[in-house]
Protein: beta-glucosidase
Organism: Flavobacterium lipolyticum
Amino acid sequence: MKNKLVLLFLGCAVLGYAQKKNTKNTVKIKPKSEFVAELLSKMTLDEKLGQLNLPTSGDITTGQANSSDVAKKIAEGKVGGLFNIKSVQKIREVQRIAVEKSRLKIPLIFGMDVIHGYETTFPIPLGLSCTWDMNLIERSARIAAQEASADGINWTFSPMVDVSRDPRWGRVSEGSGEDPYLGSQIAKAMVNGYQQNDLSKNNSIMACVKHFALYGAPEAGRDYNTVDMSHIRMFNDYFPPYKAAVDAGVGSVMASFNEIDGIPATGNKWLMTDILRKQWGFKGFVVTDFTGIPEMIEHGMGDLQAVSALSLNAGVEMDMVGEGFLGTLKKSLDEKKVTIETIDNAVKLILEAKYDLGLFSDPYKYCDANRAKTEIFTANSRKEARSTAAQSLVLLKNQNQLLPLKKSGTIALIGPLADAKENMPGTWSVATRMENAISLLTGIKEVAGASTKVLYAKGSNLDYDEEFETKATMFGKTLHRDGRSKEELLAEALKVANQSDVIVAALGESAEMSGESSSRTNLEIPQAQKDLLNALLKTGKPVVLVLFDGRPLVIKEENETVPAILNVWFAGTEAGYAIADVLFGDVNPSGKLTSTFPRSVGQLPIYYAHKNTGRPLVNTEGKFEKFRSNYIDERNEPLFPFGFGLSYTTFEYSNLKVSSDKMNSGEKLKVTVDVANTGNYDGKETVQMYIRDVVGSVTRPVRELKNFQKITLKKGEKQTVTFEITVEDLKFYNSALQFVAEPGQFEVFVGGNSNAEKKVSFVLTN
């Protein structure tokens, strides 16, 4: 008996954990480097390759884990992790196979696309970015981590930090807009929220920044398409948010689908090794996107063996779904196309991540059924999601102060998005229980109260084309298509409208009209809804357009005809309440656009931080000038610029000053501006500071966001806002890709959006 106890103790010391029923007690193990080295020395080649394999299990039915196809591979040590499996009970069953039936009992890592919340769903990331509030954004990620970890998940494929300046690309919904500086701040906030600077906690999860790199700039805005740009643009405009995530300590990185300099990212050594590891010092592991390795075959990079070796040698450690590593690397090793040192290093990084997550000390660390019962979709989390969602909404127009609405009289709520709770969470809400989402109809009725009469009519379907609507309402995001004729639907809507004091038109995109593989060439509201809106306007009743979208839309016509427009994105499970809170003035809107709204698709890509040509348009009236850089048939400027967003109150900027008109590289400048609330409501304003480098060794943008502050002002209150400028704010990558600040003149603009006119100047002397 004594000998058996000794053997058991030694086994636990080597493997780092014991199989125990009491999951509250963890096993003390050796320091990470020593532990991982010992474990790696005991692994066979098949077991090593198994750690690099990330298949999807599907959502294994409880009680059937042992008989599933993936179970055999887990028992054989041929699986390093799984994704898209949900719930403590299911994950515990699968984990038990790994730690009880495999030879070395190495625990699995469990990942999921926890993108903007778990069951408590926050606004889509594009909407979330429009809060310009890093504390709110970090808390949203922390709540997502709390809920996901309570349900067995310990790894999220988020944040997505791809800069994008072309809203034809559907995945703009999943990112933070067009600006590298703002995107970098959000990347840090999200990583900190998920990981909490301590992966050993049972309520933190490992983040995975994606998609590295440049995924947001595909040609023609078509998903997965070719990306081709200069290195100077990569470093100045597209790389910063990825680097910010790395600097924040992100545990993993996901490769993008696109090519870079003619080599797909998944097999690009310059990207994964030279930039990510050598220049930026990344210490975690890289995972491919879904089937990223075999997809390189279609890129023309070789057969499965060739592209698998290419990927491993480039610096990719984990193969998502493709199983190229598992099936071909042994042959490549025999043929000396890869080395055992490269394989060992990849395995080491995976094992280190599992060590950091505490899985060797307790493989069931994330499998506490009590947490799953008490920490998911709680009242407090829902309250936070509602408050955050309200601050993500962007008021685009409010003619004659039509908003906020009164909590009295009769409101006609009309449109295919009005009673569509399944669409409120938006795209990439894989853990959301759609039945828990709050529709706009429910939200308006509850927030307006008993003294307000709310009438509802659908008015139209999403689109006249039923096939298009089917494609746009996948994954359970149904709009319950109405089989009546368009004439019948419109007649019902007009009957309701004519009984009302004000019309709220809930129109726009469905949730799955944006997101992955949802590229669009036409960014207007579908014609069926345009026809409905025009008919409602003809009633003479005041109309408020509540615009649902996952991207900037082309709404030039609507902006000309509709008196009030509230852009609401897809605001999450509490969307209906949050939108109603803003419509009725319980919350004063404070969202600011993080992506430019074009006047027409032909302007794309469009963004504020553009460069001048040698023949810029001189006039500001939009008049066509021959031999200038402009269009014959459209103005140059957007419909709504980056940083734009109205409030129910008004803000006045004055007294912009800089502490000195000269600065050397060791000094700091202070920029101050007075901001006054000159309206009739308390409100929040995001004060934005932009800088222009007037003369450079390479051409520089007309202005770049360098700082911002979101402040709260009571009506009549004035506040002095102070920004600090250091030489780091003036640096950029030059033609030699050196990060430098060049002496010369700089202009500073401060205001409420990227068109800020108030300006001061200074000179950097050395």
